[in-house]
Fold this protein.
Amino acid sequence: MLRENVIHADLSPYNVLYADGLPVIIDLPQAVDPRFNKAAQRLLQRDVKNIASYFRRHGITLDHERWSDDLWRRFVLGEL
Ligand SMILES: Nc1ncnc2c1ncn2[C@@H]1O[C@H](COP(=O)(O)OP(=O)(O)O)[C@@H](O)[C@H]1O
Ligand SMILES: [Mg+2]
């Protein structure tokens, strides 16, 4: 999504539906374009943290700060 200049900005497990073996992300009216939104990095960090919290509850630990920092760095450098 970030490669396509989209940050969900309200991402939660409830907005990821699982159908026919594929995740389908819904609920995008508040999505932002990271090229123009000053809060973009913070919103990305929050989205990633929400998803990491879900996985943590199911026994999978993700370093959400490293994950979002890495995504943002690659976005800024055009490396996604
Ligand atoms: N196409 C769909 N198929 C199945 N469940 C859906 C679908 N769209 C929405 N839902 C259910 O409704 C909930 C709320 O939808 P969502 O679009 O996230 O609205 P909200 O803006 O209220 O968060 C979702 O978390 C999901 O459980
Ligand atoms: Mg929702």
Summary: The chain has two helices and two strands. The first strand starts at residue 16 and ends at 19. The beta strands are 16-19, 22-25.
